[in-house]
Design a protein that fits this description.
71% helix, 130 residues
């Protein structure tokens, strides 16, 4: 491809001959609400570029954690295979919990609730029950 050809290139046509790939692109069109294939490709490229930047910025940390994990496996300190699924499920559940800031934000969006409860009496009863 000559330089002159690239400079005058206004558009690109891509022919997809793989039915499975075409189905994946159609699925992305629907899932992302993109208006066209160009938007799907742009979103996918942006996501990939973000991942590449993150990996580049965090290379040392990722490598250190990988080395530590390998060392643990070599010293038989890893998670036994029969317990790995449960461990990963637990980590996922913890990661999906809302943060303290997210909980605060939720509370601030709610309307106040008024109840007729004598809180002083409740505190007194709780303390005297100990």
């Amino acid at each position: 491809m000559s330089r002159r050809f690239c400079e005058t290139w206004d558009s690109m046509n891509i022919e997809i001959r793989n039915a499975a790939l075409e189905a994946r692109i159609q699925k992305q069109l629907q899932a992302t609400g993109s208006r066209n294939v160009e938007e799907v490709l742009l979103r996918l490229l942006e996501t990939r570029e973000q991942q590449d930047r993150w990996l580049l910025e965090n290379r040392d940390v990722v490598n250190a954690k990988t080395r530590r994990g390998i060392d643990q496996l070599e010293q038989d300190e890893g998670i036994p295979e029969d317990k790995l699924d449960a461990y990963l499920a637990k980590i996922k559940e913890i990661a999906e919990r809302p943060t303290l800031n997210e909980l605060r934000d939720r509370l601030h969006t709610r309307k106040p609730v008024r109840v007729d409860i004598d809180t002083a009496r409740l505190v007194h009863e709780e303390r005297s029950g100990r």
